[in-house]
Amino acid sequence: MFTGLVEELGRVERVDDQGDSVRLTVHGPAVLVDAAHGDSISVSGVCLTVVAQQGDAFTADVMRQTLAMSTVGSFGPGTPVNLERAARVGDRLGGHIVQGHVDGTATVVEIEEGDAWRRVRFDLADDLAPLLVDKGSVTLDGVSLTVSAISEPGEAPGWFEVSLIPETLAVTTLGGKAVGDRVNVETDVLARHVRRMLRLDALGSADPGDVGSRAADDRSDAPDASDASAPAADRP
Question: Out of 1.20.272.10, 2.40.128.110, 2.40.30.20, 3.30.70.640, which CATH number does the structure's domain 8-85 have?
């Protein structure tokens, strides 16, 4: 569990192809101060498990599903990444509850510069649209942010915006994003649960003869149905 407050701007050192996965080596001395084998670290919003440490760097394995759903598949040596250690019980929750389980990606479509801030607009995939709300929380590349504006239901193409303060621009990778760049998106976990409950409620009131097929459909596209057998710390 994380809060979406980035502790350090790290850097990818190596990406080793393992066939159906990759082994990622990341430079991040600050997050390694008290890290141990098996600890969780958010790497640009993706919760990964430390499997080895070498000086100021750590190594983590990234499975195929994570590569497909996030921007990790595009990482190479030198790629900057946002790093955050897992929160301790009793810590201040300065951002919001972040799991490190990425729902997908969004692409920057517009940037507006202000005197001391930046407004960034992203495209909004249809499957994520029900999970974002104006003034609600969203995690982009591991950064806890507030949705400052969002497209109306049915508006095409869909979009949402965030406003970035100077601190966020200076200490995270978001300050270097340009139109066309992608970011990892994690929606509010409460919104995910509400959508799941609504789907199950609708299923319960359906024609009993349709339950089997509709249940299968629900499992296939629900955001919380992704590879439940995978370790939680490496699930996107």
Answer: 2.40.30.20
CB contact set of 9 (below 8 Å; sequence gap of 6+): 80, 81, 82, 83, 171, 172, 173
Report the pLDDT value the prediction gives residue 136, as an integer from 0 to 100.
95
Cis peptide before 166 (omega within 30 of 0): no
Task: Give residue for tokens 């359906």.
Answer: 206
For 201-215, the DSSP string reads: HHHHTS-GGGHHHHH
| Overall CATH class of domain 104-189 | mainly beta
Each residue of 46-75: pLDDT tens digit?
A: 999 999 999 999 999 999 999 999 999 999
pTM: 0.83
E strand or H helix that includes residue 14: strand 8-17
3-state secondary structure of 43: strand
Query: Do 122 and 147 meet the contact criterion of CB atoms below 8 Å apart?
Result: no
